[in-house]
Model the fold of this input.
Amino acid sequence: MGTTQLESVPEPKYWHLKTVLSDALDSEFAVGEILPNERELAARFGVARATLRQALEQLELEGRLQRRRGVGTTVAPPRMGVAVADAAHAWPGTAGDAWQPVDSTEDVPPGPVARLLATGPGQSVHTVRRTRKTRSQPVAAELLYVPASSVPGLAAIDAPAGAARARAVLRELQRLQLEGQDQAVELGSARADDAKQLDRLPGAPVLVVTTRYVSGGRTAAVAVATYRADTCRLTFGDAGGAAVQLLAG
Done:
């Protein structure tokens, strides 16, 4: 069989360097240890700094490295499980929910969310901010968008701001009958707000999990959860009800 055009393409230099660096991480560095700076590493391996950065970015994406504010690039710790969803669908904020409410404001949702919610142009919705930690380490930040029509009793509740307001929105949402939910996952880059909450640098790789909650035949709420992709990977269970999980360091 002849050689295809794809097979004849040489391996990119940064990809080969990534393999070499990965071996060095296993043999020379401990978890949490800070790597030498880019200039030193580039000189050691005889590559341009641009090539080195590509290799480091790939290792960060694969969970081998972490970039930390004010610290530098460190060797990532072992991963641990963080459940994203399970077979028993439930509203956000119900018993066993690992998310912590931060606050709730009224904002115009992003275009894709507005289309899922079928809200009018420029129409504000309740935006609940929540965070999730594992071993005191932030692993995810969430924005839960809830239109006023889903929580009609909220106007009578005296909870003006902060976590109390967020909990009030969640309690009112749970009064609806949840008919189902679906999720979509995509790779993205951390925005400034997400990066701050997750203790990452802006532009760091993240996994964005969008969950649409259905009640009364319509979309009652949409959650957009941003997980740290530098230490996360997705595993999917079978139809028997195994959890969809993110493994996070």
Q: What stands out?
A: The chain has two domains: 13-75, 80-248. DSSP finds six helices and eleven strands in the chain.
